[in-house]
Amino acid sequence: MMHRRFSETPGRGLPPSRTIASLALRCPPPTSGGTRIASEASAPSATPPGPALRTGTSGPRPAGGKRPGEETRAAVPKRREHKNTPAARRGCDVTKPRPGPQAPPPAPPPALRTRRNRGLRFLSSPWWCPAAVALGVLCLGSLVTIIMLGMQLLQVSDLLKQQQANLTLQENILEGQVLAQQQAEAASQESQRELKEMIETLAKRLDEKSKKQMELNHQYLNLQEALKRMDNFSGPCPEDWLWHGKNCYLFSSGSFNWESSQEKCLSLDAQLLKINSTEDLGFIQQATSHSSFPFWMGLSRRKPDYSWLWEDGSPLMPHLFRFQGAVSQRYPSGTCAYIQKGNVFAENCILVAYSICQKKADLLRSE
């Protein structure tokens, strides 16, 4: 033991106190296991070390058969010596308390001492090295797993970013397609509206044309019925006679003097032309305008100082027309009127000319 070494080397010339002090400088502070021993052994350090330190049994025994401090040393379990520690290699006994004038440190609580003792027992156990290796391997595996998970997370993040970009591109494409489809639908609706308006306009026009067609068909049927009636009836005037207003007119194909022409008209149940209104005058002027031949009228006078009279004895209305040329000449057979190219002239009644016969139209028969 270390205390025995000190007891065997006092004769080297150093006092015991210097030897203990140098030992305290060389040795490390005691651990928790030796704290109590140092505190208990520091009490008798006031007495100089002597032979009692060499054996640890010198001195008188008490009545109980034990020395002071022996019971305390027996209660504390002896700490295992570590020969391979630096303190052991320097020749220090870690279990021996360091004497000195210092006050003993306070004793740790029992729970702390129990935990420290358990830690020391675990470190001195043969299982701590495999446990440490297993823990290191577990930490290394966890680190590798974390690195792999981080790499996979980065890959997944890149993949998600790429998919997000693809989705954004597809969304933009879909938005463009939707916009184009909306524009196409708007154009289609506009075209449909225009077509609908055109159809309505064409329908209106077709309806109007249908109405006009129906009216034309109705008129056509009426004309057909009128033609059928005309086929069965020649009209209010005889054949080759012209119908105007209430009268029928016949232009002769031969030339005669005024009296012969009068007789010819009487044979046809008619008389020579008599103009009663401006409408009749306009019709005769239009009918004779295409011919240069003169046509006898039913107007005459016997002497120049007589008035112009129609064949039925009625006088001439002065506002109807005026004679062209000389009308004051005297003729033995009298003066008679004729019409040529729409103008009225006076001439000798014995001259020959064409004539116009006139008679009433049979209006009741035409109805």
TrEMBL record:
Coiled-coil intervals, chain numbering: 181-226
Q: List GO terms (cellular component aspect).
A: extracellular region; membrane raft; nucleoplasm; plasma membrane; receptor complex
Q: Where is the region Disordered?
A: 1-114
- Ranges of Pro residues compositional bias? 98-111
Please name the CDD domains in this protein's record.
CLECT_NK_receptors_like
Q: Which molecular function terms from Gene Ontology are attached?
A: carbohydrate binding; identical protein binding; low-density lipoprotein particle receptor activity
Q: Name one Pfam family in it.
A: Lectin_C
Ranges for domain C-type lectin: 244-358
Where in or outside the cell it occurs: the entry states: Cell membrane; Membrane raft; Secreted
Membrane topology qualifier: Lipid-anchor; Single-pass type II membrane protein
Q: Where are the transmembrane segments?
A: 127-154
Q: Does the keyword Magnesium apply?
A: no
Q: What is its main location?
A: membrane
Keyword match Glycoprotein: yes
GO terms in the biological process aspect are: immune system process; inflammatory response; leukocyte cell-cell adhesion; lipoprotein metabolic process
Q: Please describe the quaternary structure of this protein.
A: Homodimer; disulfide-linked. May form a hexamer composed of 3 homodimers. Interacts with HSP70.
Q: What is the protein named? A: Oxidized low-density lipoprotein receptor 1
Which species expresses this protein natively?
Answer: Oryctolagus cuniculus
- Quote the gene name from the UniProt entry: OLR1
